[in-house]
Design a protein that fits this description.
Number of helices: 2
Structural class: mainly alpha
Helix content: over 70%
Shape: rod-shaped
Radius of gyration: 18 Å
Keywords: Membrane, Transmembrane, Transmembrane helix
């Protein structure tokens, strides 16, 4: 493989990693927002437990999505 091909491959890999993290972040923010709205409508926003529960649920969900994206990316190559 030539040096130019190596650089192109590294650039593509970096771009796909950036895309994955942007997707991860967008889904995380959306999911967190939905959970917050549900919490406010349910009246749980005043509860200190909500400050712990919502982020834990959101992070767990997002980590699962991230792992699925990584697993699928590995299969497609």
């Amino acid at each position: 493989m030539t040096d130019h091909q190596n650089r192109l491959e590294l650039r593509d890999e970096k771009r796909s990693r950036q895309t994955m993290w942007l997707t991860f972040g967008a889904i995380f923010l959306t999911f967190s927002g939905v959970l917050t709205i549900i919490g406010v409508l349910a009246g749980w926003s005043e509860s200190p437990i909500a400050l712990i529960v919502w982020p834990v649920i959101a992070i767990t969900f997002m980590w699962t999505i991230r792992n699925m994206i990584i697993r699928n990316a590995g299969r497609s190559q």
